[in-house]
Amino acid sequence: MSGRQNSVYRARLVLIGSVVGACALMASPAPASAKLFKCAARAVAVFPESRIHLRCAPGDGAIEFFAFSITHPDSSRVLSLTATAVAARRAINVNYNENDLSGSGIGCLNTDCRLIGSVEMFND
Which one of 21, 34, 46, 101 has the fewest beta carbons within 10 angstroms of its own beta carbon? Predict the structure, then answer.
């Protein structure tokens, strides 16, 4: 194979791998305990070296707070989005695992708080 044919072949392999990988991610079922909650964002707080806390009112039953570790690489993005939702008085969707109680390690109480899996805000 010539150099040009070899690079075209490699590009095709990369494209095929990317498509197959994307299809696998889309086909993966969400965890059974994953839940999406439309939060009326009322407050956001930062607890240094601990967590970002989002307060929703009303909450999802007893769950009124959602937390995200401040040491996570995406914490600045989560803070930006949640602070924007509070300032703009906009709803924000919070994806969380209602059975995950590991947030207690960063100060998220098991009685009224769950860890944020993802957040999203739409222009409704």
Answer: 21
